[in-house]
Amino acid sequence: MEVLAVLFVLFMAAVYLATFVIGSMGLTLWAGASAWKGVRFKAAEKQRRQQQAERHAQAVSDYRKPYDAQRSAENLAYWQQRLKQDNAAAH
């Protein structure tokens, strides 16, 4: 009878240990999956922000193109005029 009691206690300890190990593995897998999902979410969010910033920069560039072209033409005309004046003054 005493041997059966010891075997029963050992069996129950093994069952509890197996339950603990399986539960720990499940918890570990759940934590890993949650962390991986968070990493993927942050990467996607970073990519969305980067694309939004690129679209904004492109929109600003497109908005400024006519102004920049006008300023460039004005600047070129100014320096051509200055060069003509300097050449005329030198002769």
Write up this protein.
The chain is mainly α and 91 residues long. The protein has a domain of 37 residues. The chain is built from 1 helix and no strands. The relative contact order is 0.04.
Principal-axis shape equals rod-shaped
Rg result: 38 Å
Whole-number average pLDDT? 93
**What is the helix/strand order?**
H
SSE class: mainly alpha
Quickly list its features.
single chain, 91 residues, mainly alpha, 0% strand, transmembrane, membrane, transmembrane helix
Short synopsis of the structure:
This protein has 91 residues and is an all-alpha fold.
Which helices and strands, and how do they pair?
Elements: H1 2-90
Keywords: Membrane, Transmembrane, Transmembrane helix
Transmembrane segments: 6-32
Region (Disordered): 47-66
